[in-house]
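RESIDUES AND SHAPES:
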Amino acid sequence: MRLTIGGLIIACSALCASATAQAQNYPHMLDRMNEIRQHPGQTADAIAAGQERAQLCGYCHGRDGNSVRNHIPNLASQNPEYLLKQFHLFATGERESYVMEQVGRMLTADEMVNLSLFFASQPVTAQTAVSASKLGREKYQNFCFACHGEQGEGNRDMPRLAGQKKEFLIKALTDFKQGKSARANSPMVKIMRAVDSGDIEPLADYIAAMP
């Protein structure tokens, strides 16, 4: 049977709509992921499935979650709860990014869980080209420590910052400070209002240099 271009578009749209509907049930996805993590065998199977699906992400984020582009974040060693929440936000359009919204709408709930567990299980590559900043440490202690922790590892749905790319950190922090629409719903917008623009690069240096 021949499938016209119009028919293909309709079929793809239906698939994306179905995946998005599943992604909207975030509490169910989180419960499912936590259930899987209680069983080593199921966790290993989910990580293996996530590794296979991660080929979709490799062009930007790297096959193991270590980004191959300086302005794109590492996903390796990120907290799985945080990753799952971001997949959900992209899929529902609550977090803006043209590319990631399309990706999020293609993923099923199970694929989001598997990808989150896979990337969380991968070691992040240390950023050896940056040096820790004394001023950056001071600003981190003042503005970031309470949520992201002493070592920048975050907690559950609070993201790990340690080892992120410096260029990505500068862009993200600048976008928060400027209140860019794609970041407008984040509590970081309010926090970054208290940070001077000149302190962003030292702060990024300190975070990127974290092991």
